[in-house]
Write a structure and sequence with these properties.
2 helices, 41 strands, 5-stranded antiparallel β-sheet, globular, disordered N terminus
């Protein structure tokens, strides 16, 4: 393993823009490999997630969903951070490290994404992770961790950044590859964020990296799902696939012929998967045949392209370009709907209790993941933010902003921007006049007196809710 495989870089006290490094020319042979395997499996931009379920003895997943006690107001121009409390009073200011286009948070840790670097704030010292302008940066939320996956759409290096510890898993370096051709959209991970699998387009294999040891293991074919003991892979043969479960010693624990899997999750040594045709199957450890559980109704001409485990690993959100469904682990469809035009559906968090159905500018409703019941209508609303449980959203309906929950709708009027807190009852709004204010929504859905943040907020701030108790 090379020295830079887990490198961490302290941030200099003054920002530097940095130039993007030139990208490598695409490897068309490698790309053809993905066309014949990964693309056939309909894996698109983190659309398919391999996952596993780990629970505490009491059934909890740890943490305190929906809680916050600080708000970070970030200047998109300088990156300067002003942290305030729930009353709008300033707590501290953090020096800016350059332009910021996005922010990802867990607890009181922040990852500020710019064009040439990701700055990790909240630890003993700020850390900078250099990136290229052509890189994609995608978050992976697990039960107690947050990672960012840095890659390129044309294939190349893939780095996995732990937002809390600052550790970086450089998959190609760990695998001793001098010219890796890895595609970030093929990544799979365990529910605790300790194991990751990526398709290797050079050697037509799966690379599994361990976050704690920084070591790699190698398996045949393409990744489908994994946990801390098993890896499920798929070898596409014509219009079918051989799906195999391997243990850590690469000993086969099951091998079955199935329809081509679109994704799934590992639970109790079983693989529960959904095929591109909509078939839901279980492959237990030691099996020679897949057990058919049910089938998602896929519209004519469509295929399953997305499978997202959610609701603490008890539900699968299944989607294609023009449909979306919720399925339990027994293969029963609890909810399904179709769209009139193609929609890039949102990726659910692993601990959501509700699902805002839809994506892009087309949303349908909020549904309960437990029952599939529709609890709120989202027709005509463009969702821009979701509470930590998935049951409350904020969005725009024309020129007007509103919060929607099962209890009703809270109009917020015209706004340049509005950010919903994880509790679903707090909003930071920037008015059309440019004033930033903190709003509290009561249990009766009435907005309390706004707190003016003009003296502490930068112009058009990026807003992040923090929980320093985690």
């Amino acid at each position: 393993m090379s020295d830079d495989a887990t490198a961490r870089t302290p941030v200099a006290p003054t920002p530097g823009s940095g130039d993007a490094r030139p990208t490598q020319a695409p490897n068309y042979a490698a790309r053809r490999m993905l066309v014949t395997t990964v693309a056939i499996m309909a894996i698109v931009a983190f659309a398919v997630v391999g996952w596993t379920v780990i629970r505490d003895d009491d059934g909890s997943t740890g943490g305190s969903a929906g809680s916050w006690n600080e708000i970070a107001l970030i200047s998109p121009v300088t990156g300067e951070i002003t942290v305030i409390d729930g009353e709008g009073e300033p707590i501290r200011t953090v020096v800016g490290r350059g332009r910021v286009s996005d922010v990802h948070t867990i607890g009181d840790r922040m990852a500020l994404v710019g064009t040439s670097q990701i700055v990790l704030e909240g630890g003993d010292e700020a850390l900078a992770v250099p990136i290229e302008r052509t890189n994609t940066v995608t978050p992976i939320h697990t039960a107690e961790r947050l990672h960012l996956v840095v890659g390129t759409t044309s294939g190349g290096e893939v780095r996995i950044v732990d937002v809390v510890t600052g550790e970086i898993l450089d998959v190609g370096a760990i695998a001793d590859q001098t010219d890796p051709r890895l595609f970030a959209e093929t990544i799979r991970w365990s529910a605790d964020g300790r194991r990751f699998a990526v398709a290797d387009a050079v050697f037509f294999r799966t690379i599994v990296v361990e976050s704690e040891s920084g070591t790699a293991g190698f398996f045949a074919a393409q990744p489908v799902a994994l946990d801390n003991d098993l890896v499920a892979t798929s070898q596409v043969i014509s219009r079918q696939a051989d799906v195999e479960l391997f243990d850590r010693e690469r000993t086969s624990q099951a091998r079955v012929a199935t329809e081509i899997p679109a994704g799934g999750l590992m639970i109790d040594d079983d693989l529960v998967m959904v095929a591109t045709t909509g078939a839901v199957s279980r492959v237990p450890k030691g099996a020679s045949e897949a057990e058919r559980l049910g089938e998602v109704a896929v519209p004519s001409g469509a295929t399953v392209t997305r499978v997202h485990p959610t609701a603490d690993g008890t539900r699968l959100v299944v989607a294609g370009a023009v449909f979306q469904a919720v399925v339990d682990l027994d293969g029963r469809t609890l909810f399904t709907t179709t769209f009139t035009t193609p929609v890039e559906v949102d990726v659910p968090r692993p601990d959501w209790a509700c699902l805002p159905v839809g994506g892009d500018e087309t949303y349908h409703s909020i549904v309960s993941l437990e029952t599939g019941e529709q609890i709120a209508d989202l027709s005509g609303l463009e969702v821009t933010g979701v509470a930590s449980d998935g049951c409350t959203v904020i969005g725009r309906r024309g020129d007007l902003t509103e919060v929607v929950t099962a209890e009703g709708t809270v109009p917020l009027g015209r706004a340049l921007a509005a950010s919903l807190g994880p509790d679903g009852r707090t909003v930071v709004r920037t008015t059309v006049a440019g004033t930033t204010e903190l709003l509290r929504i009561g249990d009766d859905l009435v907005i309390g007196e706004p707190v003016d943040l003009a003296e502490v907020a930068p112009r058009n701030p990026i807003v992040a809710f923090l929980d320093s108790s985690r």
